[in-house]
Model the fold of this input.
Amino acid sequence: MQDILDLKIKTWNNGVVEEKIDSVINEYMLRVFINGTELVSMICTPKNLKELVIGFLFSESIISEIDEIEEVNIEEENGIAYVSLYRQEKFEYNGDNINIKRTVTTSCGSSRTISYSLADADIKIDKNNKIMEYNKIISLMVEFNKKSEMFVKTGGVHSSALSDGDNILMFEEDIGRHNAIDKIVGRALLEKIKLDDKIILTSGRISTEILKKILRNYIPVIISKSAPTSAAINLAVNSNLTLVGFARGRKMNIYSNFEKFKE
Amino acid sequence: MQDILDLKIKTWNNGVVEEKIDSVINEYMLRVFINGTELVSMICTPKNLKELVIGFLFSESIISEIDEIEEVNIEEENGIAYVSLYRQEKFEYNGDNINIKRTVTTSCGSSRTISYSLADADIKIDKNNKIMEYNKIISLMVEFNKKSEMFVKTGGVHSSALSDGDNILMFEEDIGRHNAIDKIVGRALLEKIKLDDKIILTSGRISTEILKKILRNYIPVIISKSAPTSAAINLAVNSNLTLVGFARGRKMNIYSNFEKFKE
Done:
Protein backbone atom coordinates (compact mmCIF):
# COMPACT_ATOMS: atom_id res chain seq x y z
CA MET A 1 0.00 0.00 0.00
CA GLN A 2 1.40 3.39 -0.93
CA ASP A 3 1.81 5.94 1.81
CA ILE A 4 2.21 8.75 -0.70
CA LEU A 5 0.12 9.24 -3.84
CA ASP A 6 0.80 11.45 -6.83
CA LEU A 7 -2.16 13.55 -7.93
CA LYS A 8 -2.71 16.21 -10.55
CA ILE A 9 -3.09 19.64 -9.00
CA LYS A 10 -2.98 23.25 -10.11
CA THR A 11 -0.60 25.71 -8.49
CA TRP A 12 -0.79 29.48 -8.36
CA ASN A 13 2.46 31.26 -7.59
CA ASN A 14 2.22 35.04 -7.61
CA GLY A 15 0.11 35.12 -10.76
CA VAL A 16 1.61 32.11 -12.53
CA VAL A 17 -0.76 29.14 -12.89
CA GLU A 18 0.64 25.68 -13.59
CA GLU A 19 -0.63 22.13 -13.70
CA LYS A 20 1.57 19.82 -11.68
CA ILE A 21 1.83 16.35 -10.26
CA ASP A 22 2.03 16.68 -6.48
CA SER A 23 2.77 14.16 -3.72
CA VAL A 24 -0.01 13.89 -1.18
CA ILE A 25 -0.27 11.77 1.90
CA ASN A 26 -2.49 8.71 1.63
CA GLU A 27 -5.31 8.74 4.19
CA TYR A 28 -6.16 5.13 4.92
CA MET A 29 -8.71 3.43 7.13
CA LEU A 30 -7.78 0.31 9.09
CA ARG A 31 -10.55 -1.64 10.82
CA VAL A 32 -9.22 -3.53 13.81
CA PHE A 33 -10.87 -6.81 14.87
CA ILE A 34 -9.92 -8.40 18.18
CA ASN A 35 -10.87 -12.02 18.81
CA GLY A 36 -13.41 -11.65 16.00
CA THR A 37 -15.08 -8.44 17.17
CA GLU A 38 -14.58 -5.16 15.37
CA LEU A 39 -13.12 -2.84 17.96
CA VAL A 40 -12.08 0.34 16.26
CA SER A 41 -11.36 1.99 12.93
CA MET A 42 -8.13 3.91 12.74
CA ILE A 43 -7.47 6.61 10.20
CA CYS A 44 -3.77 6.51 9.51
CA THR A 45 -0.88 6.34 7.08
CA PRO A 46 -0.55 2.81 5.63
CA LYS A 47 2.99 2.09 6.76
CA ASN A 48 4.05 -0.13 9.67
CA LEU A 49 0.46 -1.07 10.41
CA LYS A 50 1.37 -4.00 12.64
CA GLU A 51 3.42 -1.69 14.86
CA LEU A 52 0.54 0.80 14.91
CA VAL A 53 -2.00 -1.80 16.00
CA ILE A 54 0.22 -3.25 18.71
CA GLY A 55 1.24 0.17 20.01
CA PHE A 56 -2.39 1.27 20.06
CA LEU A 57 -3.53 -1.83 21.97
CA PHE A 58 -0.82 -1.19 24.52
CA SER A 59 -1.44 2.56 24.80
CA GLU A 60 -5.14 1.93 25.31
CA SER A 61 -4.41 -0.75 27.94
CA ILE A 62 -6.06 -3.56 25.95
CA ILE A 63 -2.81 -5.47 26.39
CA SER A 64 -0.09 -4.96 28.94
CA GLU A 65 2.57 -7.00 27.20
CA ILE A 66 3.31 -8.24 23.71
CA ASP A 67 3.03 -11.90 24.75
CA GLU A 68 -0.73 -11.53 25.19
CA ILE A 69 -0.96 -11.41 21.39
CA GLU A 70 -1.29 -14.72 19.56
CA GLU A 71 -1.32 -13.23 16.06
CA VAL A 72 -1.74 -10.01 14.12
CA ASN A 73 -2.85 -10.52 10.56
CA ILE A 74 -3.02 -7.39 8.42
CA GLU A 75 -5.00 -7.49 5.15
CA GLU A 76 -3.59 -4.34 3.70
CA GLU A 77 -5.67 -4.26 0.52
CA ASN A 78 -8.92 -4.61 2.48
CA GLY A 79 -7.91 -2.26 5.27
CA ILE A 80 -8.44 -4.87 8.00
CA ALA A 81 -6.31 -6.00 10.94
CA TYR A 82 -7.25 -9.26 12.67
CA VAL A 83 -5.78 -9.57 16.15
CA SER A 84 -6.01 -12.78 18.18
CA LEU A 85 -5.32 -12.48 21.88
CA TYR A 86 -4.62 -15.60 23.95
CA ARG A 87 -7.26 -14.60 26.47
CA GLN A 88 -10.75 -15.52 25.27
CA GLU A 89 -12.42 -12.30 26.34
CA LYS A 90 -15.15 -11.12 24.04
CA PHE A 91 -14.81 -7.45 23.20
CA GLU A 92 -17.95 -5.43 23.00
CA TYR A 93 -18.79 -1.83 22.47
CA ASN A 94 -20.59 -1.17 25.69
CA GLY A 95 -18.28 1.51 26.94
CA ASP A 96 -17.74 -0.18 30.30
CA ASN A 97 -15.51 -3.12 29.52
CA ILE A 98 -13.28 -1.23 27.18
CA ASN A 99 -12.86 2.41 26.58
CA ILE A 100 -12.26 2.49 22.86
CA LYS A 101 -15.26 2.13 20.71
CA ARG A 102 -14.90 4.89 18.20
CA THR A 103 -13.07 5.74 15.06
CA VAL A 104 -9.61 6.81 16.03
CA THR A 105 -9.19 9.70 13.74
CA THR A 106 -6.25 11.90 13.05
CA SER A 107 -7.92 14.55 15.09
CA CYS A 108 -11.35 13.20 16.06
CA GLY A 109 -14.82 13.80 14.85
CA SER A 110 -16.01 10.74 12.99
CA SER A 111 -17.99 7.71 13.97
CA ARG A 112 -16.97 4.14 14.59
CA THR A 113 -18.92 2.46 11.87
CA ILE A 114 -17.90 3.73 8.51
CA SER A 115 -19.17 1.33 5.93
CA TYR A 116 -18.37 3.51 2.94
CA SER A 117 -15.14 4.59 1.39
CA LEU A 118 -13.47 7.60 2.94
CA ALA A 119 -13.97 9.53 -0.28
CA ASP A 120 -17.65 8.71 -0.92
CA ALA A 121 -19.73 11.85 -1.25
CA ASP A 122 -23.25 11.82 0.19
CA ILE A 123 -23.57 15.54 -0.26
CA LYS A 124 -22.86 17.41 -3.48
CA ILE A 125 -22.14 21.10 -3.68
CA ASP A 126 -24.09 22.95 -6.36
CA LYS A 127 -22.04 23.04 -9.58
CA ASN A 128 -22.70 26.79 -9.79
CA ASN A 129 -20.80 27.44 -6.61
CA LYS A 130 -18.51 30.37 -5.96
CA ILE A 131 -15.99 31.65 -8.47
CA MET A 132 -12.72 32.37 -6.67
CA GLU A 133 -10.17 35.07 -7.45
CA TYR A 134 -6.59 34.23 -6.59
CA ASN A 135 -5.80 37.67 -5.22
CA LYS A 136 -8.92 37.67 -3.04
CA ILE A 137 -7.75 34.42 -1.50
CA ILE A 138 -4.35 35.93 -0.79
CA SER A 139 -5.85 38.98 0.93
CA LEU A 140 -8.25 36.84 2.97
CA MET A 141 -5.35 34.72 4.19
CA VAL A 142 -3.37 37.84 5.13
CA GLU A 143 -6.33 39.02 7.24
CA PHE A 144 -6.78 35.50 8.66
CA ASN A 145 -3.14 35.30 9.74
CA LYS A 146 -3.34 38.71 11.42
CA LYS A 147 -6.26 37.51 13.52
CA SER A 148 -4.42 34.50 14.92
CA GLU A 149 -3.63 36.11 18.26
CA MET A 150 -3.66 33.01 20.40
CA PHE A 151 -1.34 31.20 18.05
CA VAL A 152 1.12 34.06 18.13
CA LYS A 153 1.07 34.01 21.94
CA THR A 154 1.15 30.27 22.51
CA GLY A 155 1.94 28.49 19.26
CA GLY A 156 -0.56 25.89 20.38
CA VAL A 157 -3.88 26.41 18.64
CA HIS A 158 -5.67 26.06 15.34
CA SER A 159 -7.71 28.84 13.80
CA SER A 160 -10.75 28.82 11.55
CA ALA A 161 -12.66 31.65 9.97
CA LEU A 162 -15.84 32.17 8.01
CA SER A 163 -15.74 34.49 5.02
CA ASP A 164 -18.19 35.73 2.44
CA GLY A 165 -15.33 35.94 -0.06
CA ASP A 166 -14.62 39.59 0.69
CA ASN A 167 -14.28 39.81 4.44
CA ILE A 168 -13.81 37.62 7.47
CA LEU A 169 -17.14 37.35 9.28
CA MET A 170 -16.16 35.11 12.18
CA PHE A 171 -12.90 33.88 13.63
CA GLU A 172 -12.39 31.06 16.14
CA GLU A 173 -9.43 29.37 17.79
CA ASP A 174 -9.11 26.08 19.61
CA ILE A 175 -6.58 23.51 20.64
CA GLY A 176 -8.38 21.12 18.25
CA ARG A 177 -8.78 21.93 14.57
CA HIS A 178 -12.20 20.23 14.52
CA ASN A 179 -13.33 22.30 17.48
CA ALA A 180 -12.36 25.56 15.77
CA ILE A 181 -14.65 24.62 12.87
CA ASP A 182 -17.44 23.43 15.17
CA LYS A 183 -17.32 26.83 16.93
CA ILE A 184 -17.81 28.58 13.58
CA VAL A 185 -20.74 26.29 12.71
CA GLY A 186 -22.28 26.76 16.16
CA ARG A 187 -22.04 30.52 15.95
CA ALA A 188 -23.53 30.53 12.44
CA LEU A 189 -26.46 28.43 13.71
CA LEU A 190 -26.98 30.77 16.69
CA GLU A 191 -26.84 33.86 14.49
CA LYS A 192 -28.91 32.28 11.69
CA ILE A 193 -26.19 32.84 9.12
CA LYS A 194 -26.52 30.91 5.87
CA LEU A 195 -23.42 28.84 5.17
CA ASP A 196 -23.98 27.53 1.64
CA ASP A 197 -22.49 30.63 0.03
CA LYS A 198 -19.55 31.08 2.40
CA ILE A 199 -15.89 30.08 2.61
CA ILE A 200 -14.05 28.39 5.46
CA LEU A 201 -10.43 29.33 6.14
CA THR A 202 -8.40 27.05 8.37
CA SER A 203 -4.87 26.71 9.68
CA GLY A 204 -5.11 22.93 9.97
CA ARG A 205 -4.55 19.94 7.75
CA ILE A 206 -7.54 18.77 5.76
CA SER A 207 -8.69 15.21 6.22
CA THR A 208 -12.00 13.66 5.20
CA GLU A 209 -13.42 14.28 8.68
CA ILE A 210 -12.86 18.01 8.32
CA LEU A 211 -14.42 17.99 4.85
CA LYS A 212 -17.45 16.10 6.13
CA LYS A 213 -18.11 18.89 8.61
CA ILE A 214 -17.86 21.39 5.76
CA LEU A 215 -20.10 19.32 3.47
CA ARG A 216 -22.75 18.85 6.15
CA ASN A 217 -23.16 22.64 6.00
CA TYR A 218 -22.99 22.78 2.19
CA ILE A 219 -20.07 25.23 2.44
CA PRO A 220 -18.70 25.34 -1.13
CA VAL A 221 -15.06 26.36 -0.51
CA ILE A 222 -12.34 25.52 2.01
CA ILE A 223 -8.91 27.15 2.06
CA SER A 224 -6.13 25.86 4.30
CA LYS A 225 -2.61 26.92 5.13
CA SER A 226 -1.73 23.24 5.38
CA ALA A 227 -1.87 20.00 3.41
CA PRO A 228 -4.90 17.93 2.43
CA THR A 229 -4.87 14.12 2.41
CA SER A 230 -5.45 12.04 -0.73
CA ALA A 231 -8.88 10.93 0.48
CA ALA A 232 -9.86 14.52 1.24
CA ILE A 233 -8.90 15.54 -2.28
CA ASN A 234 -10.95 12.68 -3.75
CA LEU A 235 -13.90 13.58 -1.55
CA ALA A 236 -13.66 17.24 -2.61
CA VAL A 237 -13.58 16.22 -6.29
CA ASN A 238 -16.54 13.83 -5.84
CA SER A 239 -18.65 16.42 -4.04
CA ASN A 240 -17.78 19.50 -6.17
CA LEU A 241 -16.21 21.20 -3.18
CA THR A 242 -13.46 23.71 -3.93
CA LEU A 243 -10.32 22.75 -2.02
CA VAL A 244 -7.26 25.00 -1.72
CA GLY A 245 -4.22 24.02 0.35
CA PHE A 246 -0.84 25.46 1.28
CA ALA A 247 -2.19 29.01 0.94
CA ARG A 248 0.88 30.79 2.26
CA GLY A 249 2.46 34.05 1.19
CA ARG A 250 1.61 34.55 -2.49
CA LYS A 251 1.25 30.84 -3.28
CA MET A 252 -1.47 28.21 -3.14
CA ASN A 253 -2.33 24.72 -4.43
CA ILE A 254 -5.72 24.00 -5.99
CA TYR A 255 -6.99 20.44 -5.70
CA SER A 256 -10.50 20.54 -7.19
CA ASN A 257 -12.86 22.67 -9.30
CA PHE A 258 -9.94 24.06 -11.33
CA GLU A 259 -12.40 25.88 -13.59
CA LYS A 260 -13.80 27.93 -10.69
CA PHE A 261 -10.68 30.09 -10.39
CA LYS A 262 -9.83 33.30 -12.18
CA GLU A 263 -7.30 36.12 -11.95
CA MET B 1 -12.19 30.80 32.28
CA GLN B 2 -8.83 31.80 30.86
CA ASP B 3 -7.89 30.44 27.47
CA ILE B 4 -4.24 31.31 27.98
CA LEU B 5 -2.25 30.75 31.18
CA ASP B 6 1.09 32.22 32.19
CA LEU B 7 3.57 29.68 33.52
CA LYS B 8 7.18 29.83 34.62
CA ILE B 9 9.49 28.13 32.14
CA LYS B 10 13.20 28.02 31.35
CA THR B 11 14.49 28.91 27.91
CA TRP B 12 17.76 27.95 26.27
CA ASN B 13 18.82 30.11 23.36
CA ASN B 14 22.15 29.17 21.85
CA GLY B 15 23.81 28.68 25.24
CA VAL B 16 21.94 31.36 27.18
CA VAL B 17 19.60 30.02 29.87
CA GLU B 18 16.82 32.23 31.24
CA GLU B 19 13.81 31.86 33.48
CA LYS B 20 10.73 33.37 31.88
CA ILE B 21 7.00 33.64 32.18
CA ASP B 22 5.48 32.11 29.05
CA SER B 23 1.92 32.06 27.69
CA VAL B 24 0.58 28.56 27.19
CA ILE B 25 -2.74 27.42 25.86
CA ASN B 26 -5.21 26.19 28.47
CA GLU B 27 -6.31 22.59 27.85
CA TYR B 28 -9.79 22.25 29.25
CA MET B 29 -12.25 19.39 29.51
CA LEU B 30 -15.97 19.99 28.92
CA ARG B 31 -18.41 17.18 29.76
CA VAL B 32 -21.55 17.43 27.66
CA PHE B 33 -24.87 16.17 29.05
CA ILE B 34 -27.86 15.88 26.75
CA ASN B 35 -31.31 15.50 28.28
CA GLY B 36 -29.58 14.43 31.48
CA THR B 37 -27.24 11.80 29.99
CA GLU B 38 -23.52 12.36 29.73
CA LEU B 39 -22.76 12.05 26.04
CA VAL B 40 -19.19 13.07 25.47
CA SER B 41 -16.19 14.84 26.96
CA MET B 42 -14.52 17.37 24.74
CA ILE B 43 -10.96 18.51 25.20
CA CYS B 44 -10.85 22.08 24.00
CA THR B 45 -9.94 25.70 24.56
CA PRO B 46 -12.37 27.33 27.03
CA LYS B 47 -13.67 30.09 24.81
CA ASN B 48 -17.04 30.20 23.03
CA LEU B 49 -18.09 26.90 24.58
CA LYS B 50 -21.76 27.32 23.71
CA GLU B 51 -20.85 27.71 20.04
CA LEU B 52 -18.59 24.67 20.29
CA VAL B 53 -21.30 22.46 21.79
CA ILE B 54 -23.95 23.53 19.29
CA GLY B 55 -21.59 23.18 16.32
CA PHE B 56 -20.53 19.76 17.53
CA LEU B 57 -24.13 18.54 17.96
CA PHE B 58 -24.86 19.68 14.43
CA SER B 59 -21.67 18.28 12.90
CA GLU B 60 -22.34 14.92 14.54
CA SER B 61 -25.98 14.94 13.35
CA ILE B 62 -27.43 14.93 16.87
CA ILE B 63 -29.44 17.98 15.82
CA SER B 64 -30.32 19.14 12.34
CA GLU B 65 -31.37 22.66 13.29
CA ILE B 66 -30.84 25.06 16.15
CA ASP B 67 -34.54 25.10 17.07
CA GLU B 68 -34.26 21.55 18.36
CA ILE B 69 -32.35 22.96 21.32
CA GLU B 70 -34.38 24.14 24.30
CA GLU B 71 -31.42 25.33 26.36
CA VAL B 72 -27.65 25.16 26.64
CA ASN B 73 -26.37 25.84 30.13
CA ILE B 74 -22.59 25.98 30.51
CA GLU B 75 -21.07 25.69 33.99
CA GLU B 76 -17.64 26.93 33.07
CA GLU B 77 -15.99 26.46 36.45
CA ASN B 78 -17.12 22.83 36.65
CA GLY B 79 -16.42 22.04 33.01
CA ILE B 80 -19.99 20.91 32.30
CA ALA B 81 -22.46 21.74 29.53
CA TYR B 82 -26.11 20.80 30.06
CA VAL B 83 -28.09 20.65 26.83
CA SER B 84 -31.87 20.20 26.76
CA LEU B 85 -33.38 19.14 23.47
CA TYR B 86 -37.13 19.46 22.90
CA ARG B 87 -37.36 15.84 21.83
CA GLN B 88 -37.47 13.52 24.80
CA GLU B 89 -35.10 10.92 23.40
CA LYS B 90 -32.85 9.31 25.96
CA PHE B 91 -29.26 9.24 24.84
CA GLU B 92 -27.27 6.17 25.61
CA TYR B 93 -23.83 4.91 24.87
CA ASN B 94 -24.75 1.83 22.97
CA GLY B 95 -23.09 2.79 19.74
CA ASP B 96 -26.19 2.16 17.65
CA ASN B 97 -28.44 5.08 18.45
CA ILE B 98 -25.72 7.64 18.38
CA ASN B 99 -22.25 7.51 17.09
CA ILE B 100 -20.42 9.62 19.60
CA LYS B 101 -19.63 8.00 22.85
CA ARG B 102 -16.04 8.85 23.39
CA THR B 103 -13.86 11.66 24.55
CA VAL B 104 -13.49 14.05 21.69
CA THR B 105 -9.88 14.85 22.02
CA THR B 106 -7.71 17.30 20.20
CA SER B 107 -6.28 14.43 18.31
CA CYS B 108 -7.82 11.25 19.77
CA GLY B 109 -6.60 8.61 22.07
CA SER B 110 -8.34 8.99 25.39
CA SER B 111 -11.44 7.45 26.87
CA ARG B 112 -14.88 8.84 27.48
CA THR B 113 -14.98 8.59 31.23
CA ILE B 114 -12.27 10.66 32.76
CA SER B 115 -13.09 11.13 36.39
CA TYR B 116 -9.76 12.70 37.30
CA SER B 117 -8.21 16.01 36.48
CA LEU B 118 -6.37 16.20 33.17
CA ALA B 119 -3.11 16.76 35.02
CA ASP B 120 -3.38 13.97 37.64
CA ALA B 121 -0.39 11.65 37.50
CA ASP B 122 -0.96 7.95 38.10
CA ILE B 123 2.53 7.13 36.95
CA LYS B 124 5.67 8.79 38.27
CA ILE B 125 8.98 8.79 36.47
CA ASP B 126 11.98 7.87 38.63
CA LYS B 127 13.48 11.05 40.09
CA ASN B 128 16.90 9.84 38.95
CA ASN B 129 15.91 9.98 35.33
CA LYS B 130 18.07 11.14 32.45
CA ILE B 131 20.30 14.21 32.63
CA MET B 132 19.97 16.14 29.39
CA GLU B 133 22.59 18.21 27.61
CA TYR B 134 21.31 21.15 25.60
CA ASN B 135 23.65 20.58 22.69
CA LYS B 136 22.74 16.88 22.50
CA ILE B 137 19.11 17.88 22.18
CA ILE B 138 19.96 20.26 19.36
CA SER B 139 21.87 17.60 17.43
CA LEU B 140 19.12 15.02 17.95
CA MET B 141 16.56 17.46 16.55
CA VAL B 142 18.78 18.17 13.54
CA GLU B 143 18.92 14.43 12.82
CA PHE B 144 15.19 14.10 13.48
CA ASN B 145 14.35 16.87 11.01
CA LYS B 146 16.57 15.29 8.35
CA LYS B 147 14.62 12.06 8.61
CA SER B 148 11.24 13.65 7.97
CA GLU B 149 11.02 12.58 4.34
CA MET B 150 7.28 12.21 4.07
CA PHE B 151 6.71 15.63 5.56
CA VAL B 152 9.10 17.21 3.10
CA LYS B 153 7.24 15.52 0.23
CA THR B 154 3.68 16.07 1.38
CA GLY B 155 3.64 18.53 4.26
CA GLY B 156 0.92 16.36 5.73
CA VAL B 157 2.34 14.08 8.41
CA HIS B 158 3.66 14.02 11.93
CA SER B 159 6.91 12.35 12.88
CA SER B 160 8.08 10.67 16.06
CA ALA B 161 11.40 9.12 16.93
CA LEU B 162 12.90 7.07 19.72
CA SER B 163 16.36 8.01 20.94
CA ASP B 164 18.79 6.73 23.55
CA GLY B 165 20.04 10.29 24.01
CA ASP B 166 22.87 9.87 21.52
CA ASN B 167 21.25 8.48 18.40
CA ILE B 168 17.88 8.02 16.81
CA LEU B 169 16.91 4.35 17.10
CA MET B 170 13.50 4.40 15.41
CA PHE B 171 11.62 6.87 13.28
CA GLU B 172 7.93 6.77 12.36
CA GLU B 173 5.55 8.99 10.41
CA ASP B 174 1.78 9.13 10.31
CA ILE B 175 -1.06 11.42 9.42
CA GLY B 176 -1.95 11.35 13.14
CA ARG B 177 0.52 12.44 15.80
CA HIS B 178 -0.83 9.79 18.20
CA ASN B 179 -0.38 7.11 15.56
CA ALA B 180 3.27 8.04 15.02
CA ILE B 181 3.92 7.48 18.73
CA ASP B 182 1.87 4.27 18.80
CA LYS B 183 4.01 2.94 15.93
CA ILE B 184 7.17 3.61 17.97
CA VAL B 185 5.67 1.87 21.01
CA GLY B 186 4.49 -1.08 18.91
CA ARG B 187 7.89 -1.53 17.31
CA ALA B 188 9.63 -1.32 20.69
CA LEU B 189 7.28 -4.03 22.03
CA LEU B 190 7.94 -6.22 18.99
CA GLU B 191 11.70 -5.76 19.26
CA LYS B 192 11.72 -6.06 23.08
CA ILE B 193 13.34 -2.67 23.50
CA LYS B 194 13.23 -1.16 26.99
CA LEU B 195 11.61 2.28 26.93
CA ASP B 196 12.15 3.58 30.46
CA ASP B 197 15.60 5.00 29.66
CA LYS B 198 14.75 6.45 26.25
CA ILE B 199 13.65 9.78 24.79
CA ILE B 200 10.73 10.50 22.47
CA LEU B 201 11.09 13.19 19.83
CA THR B 202 7.94 14.46 18.14
CA SER B 203 6.88 17.06 15.62
CA GLY B 204 3.44 17.47 17.14
CA ARG B 205 1.85 19.52 19.87
CA ILE B 206 1.88 17.98 23.34
CA SER B 207 -1.44 17.47 25.08
CA THR B 208 -2.18 15.30 28.10
CA GLU B 209 -3.23 12.41 25.83
CA ILE B 210 0.20 12.33 24.23
CA LEU B 211 1.89 12.48 27.64
CA LYS B 212 -0.27 9.63 28.94
CA LYS B 213 1.03 7.42 26.12
CA ILE B 214 4.57 8.39 27.10
CA LEU B 215 3.95 7.81 30.80
CA ARG B 216 2.35 4.42 30.22
CA ASN B 217 5.75 3.38 28.87
CA TYR B 218 7.71 5.16 31.63
CA ILE B 219 9.62 7.13 29.01
CA PRO B 220 11.35 9.86 31.04
CA VAL B 221 11.82 12.59 28.40
CA ILE B 222 9.77 14.06 25.55
CA ILE B 223 11.05 16.74 23.18
CA SER B 224 8.75 18.46 20.71
CA LYS B 225 9.14 20.99 17.93
CA SER B 226 5.74 22.36 18.92
CA ALA B 227 3.87 23.75 21.91
CA PRO B 228 2.62 21.91 25.00
CA THR B 229 -0.72 22.69 26.65
CA SER B 230 -1.02 23.95 30.23
CA ALA B 231 -2.45 20.63 31.43
CA ALA B 232 0.38 18.73 29.74
CA ILE B 233 2.92 20.90 31.55
CA ASN B 234 1.19 20.29 34.88
CA LEU B 235 1.05 16.57 34.20
CA ALA B 236 4.76 16.54 33.31
CA VAL B 237 5.62 18.38 36.53
CA ASN B 238 3.40 16.07 38.64
CA SER B 239 4.90 12.92 37.13
CA ASN B 240 8.59 14.01 37.01
CA LEU B 241 8.60 13.76 33.23
CA THR B 242 11.06 16.02 31.41
CA LEU B 243 9.19 18.13 28.88
CA VAL B 244 10.90 20.25 26.22
CA GLY B 245 8.96 22.21 23.61
CA PHE B 246 9.64 24.50 20.67
CA ALA B 247 12.97 22.76 20.04
CA ARG B 248 13.78 24.54 16.80
CA GLY B 249 17.08 25.78 15.45
CA ARG B 250 19.31 26.51 18.45
CA LYS B 251 16.43 27.25 20.82
CA MET B 252 14.16 25.32 23.16
CA ASN B 253 11.75 25.82 26.07
CA ILE B 254 11.99 23.65 29.17
CA TYR B 255 8.78 23.10 31.10
CA SER B 256 9.71 20.65 33.87
CA ASN B 257 12.69 19.08 35.68
CA PHE B 258 14.75 22.25 35.24
CA GLU B 259 17.52 20.72 37.34
CA LYS B 260 18.00 17.83 34.91
CA PHE B 261 19.65 20.02 32.26
CA LYS B 262 23.28 20.91 31.83
CA GLU B 263 25.53 22.48 29.21
